[in-house]
Amino acid sequence: MSINAEVTKVGNESAIAVIRKFSRRVQGTGLIKNSRKTRYYERNASKSVQKKSALKMLKRKADFKQLIKEGKVAETPTRRGYNRDANQSQAAANKAEQNTSSGAARFGESTPIAR
Predict the structure, then answer these.
(1) What is the distance between the alpha carbons of residues 96 and 77, in angstroms, rounded to a whole number?
(2) What is the largest CA-CA distance in the chain?
(3) Positive or negative: CA dihedral 71, 77, 83, 88
(4) Which residues have a Cβ under 8 Å from the Cβ of 88 and sit 6 or more positions away?
(5) Which of 30, 31, 66, 103 is the least buried, fewest Cβ under 10 Å from its Cβ?
(6) What is d(CA 28, CA 18) in angstroms, rounded to the nearest whole number?
(7) Residue ranges per domain, the chain?
(8) What is the pLDDT of residues 61-114, one digit of tens each?
(9) In terms of C-beta density within 10 A (0-12 exposed, 13-18 middle, 19 or more buried), how is residue 50 classed?
(10) Nearest to 5 by CA among 15, 17, 24
(11) pLDDT digits (tens, 9 = 90+) for 21-35
């Protein structure tokens, strides 16, 4: 498979503009994208190998949970990424807490201070 990306200098065009035009033309052909995609080829594993690795993973997870139960391994802390359900329930709890607190909140009390 051979794709040619040819660019000619037109009129009073600078060398940098020609290089920019060339790089855009190459991007348009999808050459770079395709070469990066096929750079590291990895063959698909057979179904039996996939099943064996899945079973190993399940066994490892069960063993790890058992070690946590026995107290031999410290439990890993939960990640602090965005979790939609947890954040919605947390927001509802915060709203309920604000409503039950004495009086209306004054402006700026709930906003964090940027330092």
Answers:
(1) 27
(2) 78
(3) positive
(4) none
(5) 103
(6) 15
(7) 1-42, 44-75
(8) 999 999 999 999 888 777 777 666 666 666 666 776 666 555 555 666 666 666
(9) exposed
(10) 24
(11) 999 998 888 888 888
Amino acid letter for position 109: E
Give the pTM.
0.38
| Contact between residue 95 and residue 83 where contact means Cβ atoms under 8 Å apart | no
Question: Which amino acid is present at 77?
Answer: P
**Token digits for 94?**
């915060």
| SS3 of residue 99 by DSSP | helix
In this structure, are residues 5 and 29 in contact, taking their beta carbons and an 8 Å threshold? yes
